[in-house]
Design a protein that fits this description.
Distance between the termini: 51 Å
Strand content: under 5%
CATH class: Mainly Alpha
Structural class: mainly alpha
Shape: globular
Radius of gyration: 16 Å
Order of helices and strands: HHHHHHH
Number of strands: 0
Number of helices: 7
């Protein structure tokens, strides 16, 4: 296997595998089900497939950036976004701190937007891969905010 393929595989394992593991250890429980939620809250089964697809796109963008632009601000922002993403579920579901999770998801939205802006000229496909991520994390921030406001 060449180094480029190994990079893509490594990023897929890190992001998809890490995201799935964090999700498995932070599943919605009775506490979450007891929270008041807005009418636009999707059913629980929607989140797994959406996040799996997004994680694959995040991994590809990260691998592309790592291969071509490793020492740029885009790569540093990509890592920051991943850290914020992986922190959200343990805060919200594990520690049951929706308000702290809201702060994290707002930071995530900002970092995703910054990644898109910093990648746009140097690697447009990577920036485009983050557009659905921006849409979903923005929706997640609104949903998280609504849950905080309702509870």
């Amino acid at each position: 296997m060449n180094s480029k393929a190994l990079t893509y595989l490594s990023f897929l394992v890190l992001v998809v595998g890490g995201g799935l593991l964090i999700g498995l250890f932070n599943l919605p429980d009775a506490w979450y089900r007891s929270l008041a939620k807005p009418a636009f809250n999707p059913p629980d089964w929607v989140f797994g497939p959406v996040w799996t697809l997004l994680y694959a796109m995040i991994a590809v963008a990260g691998a592309r950036t790592f291969i071509g632009f490793r020492k740029t601000s885009a790569m540093r922002i990509w890592w920051a976004a991943l850290a914020l993403n992986f922190a959200w579920s343990p805060l919200f579901f594990g520690l049951r701190e929706p308000a702290l999770a809201l702060i994290v998801v707002i930071g995530l939205v900002v970092s995703v937007l910054l990644y898109i802006l910093s990648s746009w000229k140097q690697d447009r496909p990577s920036a485009l891969l983050f557009l659905p991520y921006l849409a979903w994390t923005s929706f997640a921030a609104v949903l998280n905010g609504a849950i905080v406001a309702l509870n």
